Backbone:
């Protein structure tokens, strides 16, 4: 297994749209292992393939404190959503930035698991927030795009400054 580099906002590749996976090849399996290791090491509660510059519809999520409830969602589709909730979000592609985002409170998503079997997951709380955040990544959307234009300008300036200071 290996830890993959995570694209950092504002990187244009974070806006690419992920394609459907049509077969769980050895390559896809390896990617799922590497994404899980990358997420747990970061540490984060979710990771979308887009963030590691692979533009396929693959998400890994684990919101458990014990790191033993890995959820793999391939080709996820939103089936139902209800209610509204505001939750403070962060993103491994936008380090150090946290802000509130309004999303559906409860969702049901259909997806394939790592063995290519179809399943449904109904989620609330952090899990629902996280799945919606990851599904956005697959559509090329980063959570900061829900914030005001002014906040986005400030975030971009801050992250670019930090990049300059690092290199
Ligand atoms: O680790 C993460 N924490 C988090 C907290 C609140 C809402 C969403 C998230 S997802 C984030 C990991 C990440 O960037 N996934 O794309
Ligand atoms: Ni993210």
Residues:
């Amino acid at each position: 297994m290996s830890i993959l580099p995570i694209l950092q906002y504002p990187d244009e590749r974070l806006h690419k749209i992920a394609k459907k996976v049509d077969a769980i090849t050895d390559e896809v399996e390896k990617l799922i292992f590497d994404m899980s290791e990358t997420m747990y090491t970061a540490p984060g509660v979710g990771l979308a393939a887009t963030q590691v510059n692979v533009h396929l519809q693959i998400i890994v999520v684990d919101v458990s404190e014990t790191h033993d409830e890995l959820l793999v969602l391939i080709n996820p589709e939103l089936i139902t959503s209800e209610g509204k909730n505001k939750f403070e979000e962060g993103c491994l592609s936008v380090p150090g930035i946290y802000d509130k985002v309004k999303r559906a409170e409860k969702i049901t998503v259909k997806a394939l698991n790592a063995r290519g079997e179809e399943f449904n997951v109904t989620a609330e709380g952090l899990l629902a927030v996280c799945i919606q955040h990851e599904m956005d990544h697959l559509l090329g959307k980063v959570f900061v795009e829900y914030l005001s234009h002014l906040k986005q300008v400030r975030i971009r300036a801050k992250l670019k400054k930090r990049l300059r200071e690092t290199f």
